What we know:
Elements: E1 6-10, H1 15-26, E2 30-35, H2 45-51, E3 57-61, H3 67-81, E4 86-89, H4 106-134, E5 138-142, H5 156-175, E6 181-187, H6 209-221, E7 230-233
Parallel strand pairs: 1-2, 1-4, 2-3, 4-5, 5-6, 6-7
Helix pairs in contact: 1-6, 3-4, 4-5
Organism: Cyanobium gracile UHCC 0139
Protein name: SDR family NAD(P)-dependent oxidoreductase
Keywords: Oxidoreductase
Amino acid sequence: MEKPRTLLISGASRGIGRAIAERALAEGHRLSLGLRDPAALAEGPLRETARQGTDRVLLHPYEARDPAQATAWVEATLARYGAIDGLIHCAGLFSRVGLLFPPGGEGEIEDLWRVNLMGPWWLTRAAWPALVASGDGRVITLVSMSGQRVKGSLTAYPCSKFALMALCQSMRNEGWDAGIRVTAICPGWVNTAMASQVTALPAEAMTQPEDLAALTAQLLRLPASAVPFELKINCVLEPC
């Protein structure tokens, strides 16, 4: 790796986010991890490195529903590292709410919207001046194949992900001249807790979190002239 980056990573306590953070740590990057409960982070290289008191890993409280926490996390990261040149959005919620939801379903839809769309929006806005100052910023967002098409009766979740794809496009447009490059990663089934109830596909046949971590590591190495905007990754064949 030519140059280590200072990366903000949300959703790093488990699943895809944790795999991405662990790979980024192994690649030599400096990490600022936004966690709902930093004290509950499971044992492993992230917690161990943070415990050693080095400047490699900062653990900071972060609740995606609260824009003030996005600002506080960014400010703490700048106070520790003095710069931010990468932002990786992995935090998100899943929902099975359909089109004809029962009375009271509005609350779940609004919460999904707040976490899946507004969380990344608030955090990106807070980190934007630092990304511009870097001159070579990167924003990587875990979207989903549900941001590309709608399957079955799911409605609330894909609506939030389609909106997130639009946000990614807007970030790309806004940041292009400042050297910021944006990538939306759109996986299908990934072997995480979210997919644990899937019976039609064995876990070993799914995309693995480590595979997405490897792709993210490669994205961080690419020059601005070669960063793709959209990566669709699917472990099953779907009609085009």
